[in-house]
Amino acid sequence: MNSFIHFSRRNFGSVLKCSNSDCGFIQRRNAHDILIRERTGKPIIKYGPGGRSSVSGHIATVFGCTGFLGRYLVAKLAKQGTQVIIPFRDEDEKRHLKVNGDLGQVVPIEFDLRNTDAIVSAVRHSDIVYNLIGRDYDTKNFSYEAVHAEYPAKIAEISAEQGVSRFVHVSALNADARSTSKFYRSKALGERLVRNAFPDATIVRPAYLFGPEDRFLNRLAATGGWELLIRHNDAVVHPVNVIDVAKALAMMQTSESTAGETYELYGTKGYTFTEIYDFVGEVTKKTNTRVYIPKSIALLYARLQNSLLPWATISPDDIERMTISDKFSEDAKTFGDLDIEPVSLEAAAITVLRRFRYNVYFDAPPDEVEAAKATLKKRKVPFIHT
Ligand SMILES: NC(=O)c1ccc[n+]([C@@H]2O[C@H](COP(=O)([O-])OP(=O)(O)OC[C@H]3O[C@@H](n4cnc5c(N)ncnc54)[C@H](OP(=O)(O)O)[C@@H]3O)[C@@H](O)[C@H]2O)c1
């Protein structure tokens, strides 16, 4: 190789030069271009001006990359020049992630949670491992405990053995060993087992996530004219934008002060489900028939749907979680500690909900919606936009 690099000191920084005279490459290096990992003492060295085609020096593995939050996290990391290892199960589920980074920067690896060698291959070159694996319902192969506790602990253990510097585990707000929800109980168990396996793991507890592909606003808006609400349910939830949570997770890559901490990431305001339905109706400009049903009937409905339909629908535990108000712990950190100001549901929901509007007032400004509705009633002009 005739193009190696000279490293010369000047003032606080230094200059990197390519010895090949045709190269013309000269780059200023500063002390902040190097990060020494506290746990492993490994150096992380940045190259380039920053951004997609630079090298952040980090290699991150994102388990659960094919999910809703995963795609936003992979996009954020790859955009910073981090090489991202994306363990996947289904060939078609990971294709969209490849284009998030420069050529060769997003590396898919096929894996199975029960295959230890595959997990080792996915983490052994990494500096940070994110575990986003989760499921809203039990499956015939994986129980809540397996997906949220047993296997995350196994990934954390393997990561520690392989010399990974940082481990970030995504749990859920309200994770509690005494919760009435099996999901929250398994998340609490997962936090405990992960911390045992990787003591300075960062635990992240997001509230209900909303965003374009969510299972929250999309589910509430796609009701086919009906709004089913649980009777006497005054639980208050704080939905949070998926992009804000991904931003916080990406920040944890470089921020050593987040190691060993627990973060609770929730939105700016609390809402009951009735308030959220009101809001969804206001944005989609639809008037649905609202039906209040007892919790026992809602649970029966969810159980029946789950046993009769071959695809995933609302699970009985989803219903249980809808009746639990968000609880915050005093010793957990929040968005404020990361200097992130979360976006409000009111400001961001239109990007998710607009597609539920009728075409006649799809992109009409708020003051033109009534006129558009009147036009629609008279069936004069089908489109008001040109
Ligand atoms: N969405 C929310 O409102 C919310 C709220 C609080 C906490 N969380 C937590 O945040 C994390 C990310 O949520 P999300 O909404 O992005 O979840 P998601 O869309 O359901 O994605 C879950 C991910 O986990 C993977 N996964 C599930 N079971 C697996 C198994 N048995 N083996 C291997 N991979 C498995 C899925 O892979 P496949 O594509 O191969 O199935 C997918 O990549 C989860 O831990 C979730 O519990 C989510």
Automatic annotation (TrEMBL):
Q: Give the source's domain of life in one word.
A: Eukaryota
Entry's PANTHER family? NADH DEHYDROGENASE [UBIQUINONE] 1 ALPHA SUBCOMPLEX SUBUNIT 9, MITOCHONDRIAL, NADH-UBIQUINONE OXIDOREDUCTASE 39 KDA SUBUNIT-RELATED
Q: Which GO terms describe its molecular function?
A: protein-containing complex binding
Q: Boundaries of each NAD(P)-binding domain copy? A: 64-250
GO-annotated cellular components: mitochondrion
Q: What is this protein called?
A: 5473_t:CDS:1
